[in-house]
């Protein structure tokens, strides 16, 4: 049975691959699993049919037979556990790769998203600049720590894993800010992820959705 995921009908990122379905698409491509995509509008995401799949009314979701999942990290982990290619076979190495998945989503992504939200929603507040400075510091602290740990390695812990897949998508959320570029090894790490054929296929597919939606008007 081919799994079905949900994705934005018209992504607010204009097809830059920053929406969280990109991680899931990339994971599918890495392991060679076909998948279907059901596009949803912002309105549909808040309607009962979608809320049955996703309690918070968001994308992505995953459906396969009688299994429904939400949370991009849980979905990527499920794919990685089902197929070879995203988690090492050795039990300890596998546990470490899963630690990196959590680190990406639980330690590195939160300050990045907090900064992003501040930029979108608080620009007109009188305290915005002061808060932004604090949010930038928090992001920079994480980038500096991550850069130190990555060092000259290609990936975070041995072979490319689901931990790298999630970390690269998280760092990509800083595209255009110039923050990642301050750490050449992190910029090269993101570029290595983006150069993977599986990433490129996933990126092209989500961009095609946005392009089709835009041409329809
Ligand atoms: N922690 C969730 C976050 C999901 C999320 O924030 N999805 C965004 C798209 S990237 C969304 O659906 N936003 C619309 C909304 O929250 O109304 C995950 O990783 O899946």
UniProtKB/TrEMBL annotation:
A Pfam family matched in the record: GST_N
PANTHER family: GLUTATHIONE S-TRANSFERASE GSTA, GLUTATHIONE S-TRANSFERASE-RELATED
Protein name: Glutathione S-transferase family protein
Gene3D superfamilies, A to Z: 1.20.1050.10, Glutaredoxin
Domain GST N-terminal: 8-87
InterPro entries documented for this protein: Glutathione-S-Trfase_C-like, Glutathione-S-Trfase_C_sf, Glutathione_S-Trfase, Glutathione_S-Trfase_N, Thioredoxin-like_sf
Occurrences of domain GST C-terminal (ranges): 90-215
Lineage: Bacteria, Pseudomonadati, Pseudomonadota, Gammaproteobacteria, Steroidobacterales
């Amino acid at each position: 049975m081919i799994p079905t995921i949900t994705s934005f009908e018209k992504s607010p990122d204009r097809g830059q691959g920053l929406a969280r379905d990109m991680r899931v698409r990339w994971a599918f491509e890495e392991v060679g699993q076909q998948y279907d995509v059901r596009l949803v509008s912002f309105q549909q995401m808040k309607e009962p049919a979608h809320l049955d799949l996703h309690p918070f009314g968001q994308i992505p979701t995953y459906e396969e037979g009688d299994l429904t999942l939400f949370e991009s990290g849980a979905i990527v982990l499920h794919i990685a556990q089902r197929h070879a290619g995203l988690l090492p076979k050795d039990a300890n190495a596998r546990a470490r790769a899963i630690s990196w998945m959590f680190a990406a989503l639980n330690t590195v992504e939160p300050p990045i998203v907090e900064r992003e939200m501040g930029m979108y929603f608080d620009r007109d507040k009188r305290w915005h600049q002061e808060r932004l400075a604090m949010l930038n510091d928090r992001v920079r602290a994480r980038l500096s720590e991550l850069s130190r740990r990555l060092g000259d390695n290609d990936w975070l812990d041995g072979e490319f894993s689901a931990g790298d897949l999630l970390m690269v998508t998280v760092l990509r959320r800083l595209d255009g800010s110039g923050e990642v570029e301050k750490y050449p090894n992190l910029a090269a790490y993101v570029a290595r992820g983006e150069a993977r054929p599986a990433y490129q296929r996933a990126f092209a597919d989500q961009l095609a959705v946005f392009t089709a939606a835009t041409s329809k008007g």
